[in-house]
Amino acid sequence: MENSCEFAFPTKPKDVSLQELRDRLAEFAEVRGWDQYHSPRNLLLALVGEVGELSEIFQWKGEVARGLPNWSPDDKEHLEEELSDVLLYLIRLADVCGLDLGQAALTKIVKNARKYPIADQSPSSSSSSSSSSLTTSN
To answer: What are the boundaries of each domain within the chain?
Structure first.
């Protein structure tokens, strides 16, 4: 029995668009008959599960340096896989909800830039929050 993957890349792509990922995910689900299971609720629950798996990677590591200089190649590969799972479920959820995730993200960056103008980024104003303004909930 031949094990072929119609979704394999001939070479490692340099830039992959959200649209390409969306299209591939939609096709992947359709040809397997999974669309019936891809309700917004089910996709959200799967996404939350994947975020949990991603969180487990960092759970006992303490602070981690940028670039992960002390991580093994296997640990970095595991992180890539879990980040990819989160991204793919997020893209699929947005698609099933009829949303343009790329445009929504750009709109949110502009909104956050207005909410947090450069002039407000003094040490005293930024120390009150440990999270990035790119991920605010408003």
So the answer is: 75-118
Supply the pTM of this predicted model.
0.78
How far, in Å, CA of 138 to CA of 2, rounded? 50
Per the rule left: phi > 0, alpha: psi between -120 and 50, beta: everything else, 29 is alpha
Cβ-based neighbour number of residue 18 at 10 Å: 17
Q: What is the pLDDT of residues 27-47, one digit of tens each?
A: 999 999 999 999 999 999 999
Give yes or no for a contact between 17 and 91, defined as CB atoms under 8 angstroms apart.
Answer: no
Task: Provide the sign of the torsion angle of the four alpha carbons 9, 10, 11, 16, taken in this order.
Answer: negative
AA identity, residue 60 = W
Tell me how crowded residue 94 is: count the other CB atoms within 10 A of its CB: 19
- For residues 91 and 99, what is the distance between their CA atoms, to the nearest angstrom? 9
